[in-house]
Design brief:
heterodimer; A: alpha/beta; Rossmann fold; SH3 type barrels; B: alpha/beta; Aspartate Aminotransferase, domain 1; Aspartate Aminotransferase, domain 2; 2 domains; 7-stranded mixed sheet; 14% strand
């Protein structure tokens, strides 16, 4: 196959590209420039597209003996990922920009451009496995290394886009093994730190980024009874489940810590309450993507709502083309799920489907919000 | 075997220059040393300087050897600005054409940001020719405030030749010195420093078949230049640093050969270029030639085309993978193509400027090269347009 290897400048994508070369593919490396105003150097764990990263990607391609290009996808990235990130926060939701980037940039803009230029597939350093069944259906599975598993951020692609995706790191036993392989291959990025944070929030200060881009919008912080307990500088900067940075003047009556329960963009209000009130009893998600037929109501499976979160037991209530609804299974607990988050359903290691959370219902009987 | 059509970026080194370089590298000696080895190195440098000066219509004493065109441009722009302003503090205005190479534009911008200069970008017409009326009215409006004028001999992207005689006449009427970046012009069109009337002129070895790392600023005798690089006082005290006798030798050999062959080169390469342009315009719908339509008013080796609906990076990839090496002509930062300031100054819309492709022919170019490029170009453009649609490029 003619394979377009996305090279971020990090160790994972470099080793993935190397494995694609070993597999006999005709590989071309591409570094996506996603920011117009790029920093010279990467700072700590942040960012993926500094000029230094582009240079590291180039050196990896040199080492692999593959052609290398930088493609400027910054306009598309700004229009789809960054604009969506801001709009979602402004609407009181909590988006996952990496999910959005996979859906709209890596496996849409990059893939479509690659296909038009004569490539057959896009290869990335994601940790996930694509399994092709005898009948030709494609399944997405968790990676061999659960700590690095990225099936959560890839589920949005669905089986069709996955047909054009190559994840050579799916069976790597550990990140340590990836680094060791990079060393063995003479890749200079072997010791580079992992990136975790949102790449376009340069200093890792998401609240500051939102404030810069959305402006100051002072409002009230209220408790579930409606009493004003504090002020905020913009409801958009808060996320359900958040505890730190609330700066509440009045202590809670019971003296226990308070968390953000809800963000109400229209009223520009932030609602806070106890940890108990954060407990989720069920959730409804929009725009579901299914791998195979949607699971019938009553199916017990696992749900994951964060990239690095643990899966919890759920029972499917409704699963169709427009909507996905699950209830927490007996004994399962889930706290602080915000609208906008991605929910992925698993059967063991296999991804069943994905959706974007629209609403949650509390686990506590008698409370509403 | 790849087809190299990017001579404006750099040219293959001429065999005679490579031989001169290798031979001189084998000899030890610092040209500033006073012993026998030093004297031999100095003699070699001075002979090369004389040879270079003779090739470009300058006196040997007017040749300030540098590490290349960029250094020569920096020395001219900054050195002239500082010297002129030291003589009269009112002289703050730096007049440069909007289509200058970044090696002129960026020092001028730096002077404006850091050294109190006022940058005046002279507009160009749709063929990239500097607006002489704008220059004249700028000079007339601020006769005592202009530090220098810098207008390139020939543009590196679209190949436009500038009306330097008129520029020089206009500036000299007000006693303002004129610098020209002649890096692309040497070996392609007649370049005579004395006849040009210029006060300063930049040259580069590797654009004429010499090695990368050598260049020169020709500075008229008596021209006051403040040094940019301080140290041992070489090159009239204007450009310190040990001279490489080997690089200078190779530069002189290449420049001499390029100038000696120029007439035949211009005919031969100009005809190849015309065939390339005609072939591309005929074979590719929506292809537009940028720069002067009259071949006599552009560099003989330059063919600059735009293809609406394409992105330059897609075209480059497709041509490269088919073994044809060209350029978008514009600067890139860590591999990201920037929209060309030259094309935008010529009035192109953003979407027109993004599908730019520069073929530049040189001393090794052949008719086979041109036919090979023409064979792959239509398919590459078609495919790049499909990719452009996938990436949301406006047609």
């Amino acid at each position: 196959m003619r394979v377009l290897a996305a090279l971020s400048g990090g160790v994972d994508s470099a080793v993935a590209a190397a494995r694609a070369v070993d597999a006999g593919h005709d590989v071309v490396g591409v570094h996506m420039a996603l920011s117009r105003s790029r920093a010279q150097f990467r700072e700590g764990s942040r960012g993926c597209c500094s000029i230094e990263d582009a240079g590291d990607a180039r050196r990896a391609a040199d080492r692999l003996g593959i052609p290398f290009y930088v493609w400027d996808l910054s306009e598309r990235f700004e229009d789809t990922v960054v604009a969506d990130f801001l709009a979602e926060y402004a609407a009181g939701r909590t988006p996952n920009p990496c999910v959005r980037c996979n859906e709209h940039i890596k496996f849409a803009t990059l893939l479509d451009k690659g296909l038009a230029l004569g490539f057959d597939a896009v290869c990335t350093g994601h940790y996930a496995k694509v399994v092709v069944r005898d009948d030709g259906t494609r399944e997405l599975h968790r990676a061999a290394e659960p700590a690095k598993d990225q099936s959560y951020v890839l589920a949005v692609l669905g089986p069709q886009r996955l047909a054009r995706a190559l994840f050579p790191l799916g069976d790597v036993p550990s990140k340590v093994a990836t680094r060791a392989e990079a060393v063995a291959r003479g890749l200079s990025v072997a010791a580079k730190p992992d990136s975790y944070d949102i790449c376009f929030v340069a200093d890792g200060d998401t609240q500051g980024f939102l404030r810069d881009r959305l402006g100051s919008q002072p409002g009230e912080v209220v408790d579930t009874a409606g009493a004003v307990v504090g002020q905020h500088d913009g409801a958009y900067a808060y996320t359900v489940g958040q505890r730190r940075g609330l700066a509440l003047g009045h202590p809670a009556p019971d003296g226990r810590p308070r968390y953000v329960l809800a963000v109400e963009p229209v009223a520009n209000r932030v609602v806070v309450g106890s940890a108990d009130e954060l407990a989720v009893g069920g959730l409804v998600a929009d725009r579901p993507v299914w791998f195979g037929a949607p699971p019938p109501p009553g199916t017990t499976c696992a749900a994951q709502v964060r990239a690095h979160g643990s899966p919890v037991g759920v029972v499917v209530e409704r699963a169709g083309d427009d909507e996905l609804a699950v209830a927490l299974a007996d004994g399962a607990a889930l706290r602080g799920v915000a609208p906008g988050q991605s929910v992925v359903l698993y059967d063991g290691t296999r991804v069943l489907g994905q959706g974007t959370v629209r609403a949650t219902r509390p686990a506590l009987v008698g409370t509403t919000r | 075997m790849s087809v190299y059509l990017d001579h404006a970026a750099t040219t293959p080194v001429r065999p005679a220059a490579a031989a001169a370089l290798a031979e001189a590298l084998a000899r030890a000696g610092n040209p500033s040393s006073l012993h026998a080895s030093g004297r031999a190195a100095r003699r070699s440098v001075e002979e090369a300087r004389e040879r270079l000066a003779a090739a470009v219509g300058a006196r040997p004493g007017e040749v300030v050897l540098t590490s290349g065109g960029t250094e020569a441009d920096n020395l001219a722009v900054k050195g002239l600005f500082w010297a002129r302003r030291a003589a009269d503090d009112r002289r703050r205005r730096v007049l440069v054409s909007a289509v200058e190479h970044h090696a002129v534009l960026d020092p001028a911008r730096w002077l404006a940001e850091r050294a109190g200069a006022e940058l005046v970008l002279l507009p160009v017409d749709d063929e990239g020719v500097v607006d002489l009326d704008a220059l004249r009215s700028e000079l007339a409006a601020h006769p005592d405030e202009v530090a220098l004028v810098s207008v390139m001999w020939a543009n590196n992207e679209v190949g436009t030749l500038q009306p330097l005689a008129e520029v020089v006449a206009a500036a000299h009427e007000y006693g303002v010195p004129v610098h020209a970046d002649a890096v692309q012009a040497l070996g392609q069109v007649p370049v005579d420093f004395a006849a040009s009337g210029l006060d300063a002129m930049s040259l580069s070895a590797h654009k004429v078949g010499g090695p990368v790392g050598a260049g020169a600023l020709l500075a008229r005798r008596g021209l006051d230049l403040v040094p940019v690089q301080h140290g041992g006082g070489q090159e009239r005290g204007v450009r310190s640093g040990t001279l490489s006798a080997a690089l200078v030798q190779a530069f002189a050999v290449a420049a001499d050969e390029a100038v000696a062959e120029r007439d035949g080169f211009a005919h031969r390469v100009g005809a190849l270029r015309d065939r390339l342009v005609d072939g591309a315009l005929a074979a590719v719908p929506g292809a537009v030639l940028r720069g002067p339509a009259d071949p006599a008013r552009r560099l003989p080796g330059n063919a600059h085309l735009t293809f609406a609906g394409c992105e330059g990076d897609s075209l480059l990839y497709l041509l490269d993978s088919a073994g044809v090496e060209a350029s978008t002509g514009s600067a890139c930062q860590a591999g990201v193509l920037q929209r060309s300031h030259v094309l935008l100054a010529m009035g192109l819309r953003d979407e027109e400027a993004r599908g730019a492709l520069r073929f530049s022919l040189g001393h090794t170019s052949t008719a086979d090269d041109v036919e090979a490029a023409l064979a792959v170009l239509p398919g590459a453009v078609e495919r790049a347009r499909a990719a452009g649609m996938a990436a949301g490029v406006p047609a």
